[in-house]
């Protein structure tokens, strides 16, 4: 059976770079070294606690220097050329690397790191902790434009394998409490690169959204996700359903476009999915995304967020869930988070969820007709790891070919 191959490398400044090769890849196993002169990493950011909510805010000033909508020939996520010494030295199928200017990390341990979940939940004035953790960039393709929805089923399957592999690896790092893969798509969302890519954050705390979920579980009970799935699958809000996954508009949708995707069995994170579940997800998710784009005549901005159970708590009752949200409420209209939503967290929905689900079902049907996803080749074995390549020093004045 053909396997997706993992090829670990290092960038010139010591950051991890991992290639994930499609099972039918045409790429040579050998990859060029990063010949850029090593540059110092920015200092790890500092978290400050908001005593009014108890939440933590990472102050990551180095992010101010990130690239903003560069031309295609200067795309930092494209394979490197003599005129564009990018982050990825070689042609690739899928590539994952440590963010140069992360919100969390590069330190994983520090004297002022969070001591425990109890330490993080204590509320006080002017409390700080080091923003230990990890932030990674996931490049879906060497193309300079596109998104997850523009991938082939084979490439989508490789990205899902990379998400699962990185979820497992990041969850094993010291002081990581929760792992969050996501994709931002469209300038209306705040995207600064048109290159098809996503990110993975490994947080040193449990996020506010997940803490709110934990409180709901404590009030409702451990069957919350199973009961939601049963109700939604019996409703008119279902968009697509397969053997392993169901996509639906939730009963209390906040956004004009909001889609949740749940696995049919309890799975805490992507690392726990089976090969069959990953195979079906590759095609079902592509159909959902192409349906979202078929709603209007231009691509729809969205955030696709993989909500996963924390690393070391609530693994048996928090279920993996994809939540895709878009502010687009019409062909030329966006929902802005104004006074009630931004100031008070009190949402007002613009479109009834049942109406949104009907529109999305019709859009998926149009996309299936006009832009079909195709079939995932049978016989993908999963992941094998090639021997790690030794990093080469960067000769002065050289850039990757």
Automatic annotation (TrEMBL):
One of its GO terms (molecular function) is UDP-glucose:hexose-1-phosphate uridylyltransferase activity. Pathway: Carbohydrate metabolism; galactose metabolism. It catalyses: alpha-D-galactose 1-phosphate + UDP-alpha-D-glucose = alpha-D-glucose 1-phosphate + UDP-alpha-D-galactose. Residues 48-206 form the Galactose-1-phosphate uridyl transferase N-terminal domain. Its EC number is 2.7.7.12. Keywords: Carbohydrate metabolism, Galactose metabolism, Metal-binding, Nucleotidyltransferase, Transferase, Zinc. Its cofactor is Zn(2+). Residues 1-46 are annotated as: Disordered. GO terms for cellular component: cytoplasm. It is an enzyme of class 2 (transferase). GO terms for biological process: galactose catabolic process via UDP-galactose, Leloir pathway. The keyword Transferase applies. Pfam families: GalP_UDP_tr_C, GalP_UDP_transf. Residues 28-39 have a biased composition (Basic and acidic residues). InterPro entries: GalP_UDPtransf1, GalP_UDPtransf1_His-AS, GalP_Utransf_C, GalP_Utransf_N, HIT-like_sf. Residues 221-362 form the Galactose-1-phosphate uridyl transferase C-terminal domain. The active site is at residue 197. Belongs to the galactose-1-phosphate uridylyltransferase type 1 family. This is Galactose-1-phosphate uridylyltransferase. It comes from Leifsonia shinshuensis.
């Amino acid at each position: 059976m053909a396997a997706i191959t993992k090829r670990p490398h290092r960038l010139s400044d010591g950051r991890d770079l991992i290639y994930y090769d499609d099972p039918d890849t045409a790429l040579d196993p050998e990859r060029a070294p990063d010949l850029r002169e090593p540059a110092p990493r920015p200092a790890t950011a500092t978290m400050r606690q908001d005593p009014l909510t108890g939440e933590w805010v990472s102050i990551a000033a180095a992010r101010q220097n990130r690239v903003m909508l560069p031309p295609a020939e200067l795309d930092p996520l494209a394979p490197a050329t003599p005129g564009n010494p990018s982050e990825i030295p070689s042609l690739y199928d899928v590539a994952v690397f440590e963010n140069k200017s992360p919100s969390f990390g590069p330190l994983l341990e520090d004297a002022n790191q969070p001591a425990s979940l109890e330490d993080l939940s204590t509320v006080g004035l002017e409390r700080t902790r080091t923003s230990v953790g990890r932030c990674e960039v996931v490049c879906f393709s060497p193309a300079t434009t596109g998104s997850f929805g523009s991938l082939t089923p084979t490439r989508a399957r490789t990205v899902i394998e990379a998400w699962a592999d990185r979820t497992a690896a990041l969850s094993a790092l010291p002081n990581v409490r929760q792992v969050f893969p996501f994709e931002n798509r469209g300038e209306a969302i705040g995207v600064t690169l048109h290159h098809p890519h996503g990110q993975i954050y490994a947080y040193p705390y449990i996020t506010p959204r997940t803490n709110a979920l934990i409180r709901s579980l404590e009030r409702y009970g451990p069957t919350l996700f199973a009961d939601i799935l049963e109700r939604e699958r019996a409703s008119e809000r279902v968009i697509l359903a397969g053997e392993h996954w169901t996509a639906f508009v939730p009963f209390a949708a906040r956004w004009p476009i909001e889609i949740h995707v749940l696995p049919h069995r309890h799975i805490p994170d992507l690392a726990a999915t089976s090969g069959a579940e990953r195979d079906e997800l590759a095609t079902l998710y592509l159909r959902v995304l192409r349906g979202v784009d078929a709603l209007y005549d231009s691509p729809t901005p969205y955030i696709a967020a993989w909500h996963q159970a924390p690393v070391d708590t609530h693994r048996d009752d928090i279920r993996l869930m994809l939540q895709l949200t878009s502010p687009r409420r019409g062909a030329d209209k966006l929902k802005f988070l104004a006074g009630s939503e931004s100031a008070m967290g009190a949402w007002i929905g613009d479109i009834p969820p049942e109406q949104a689900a009907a529109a999305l079902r019709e859009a998926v049907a149009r996309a299936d007709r006009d832009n079909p996803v195709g079939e995932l080749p049978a016989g993908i074995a999963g992941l094998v790891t090639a021997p790690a390549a030794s990093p080469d020093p960067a000769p002065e004045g050289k850039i990757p070919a």
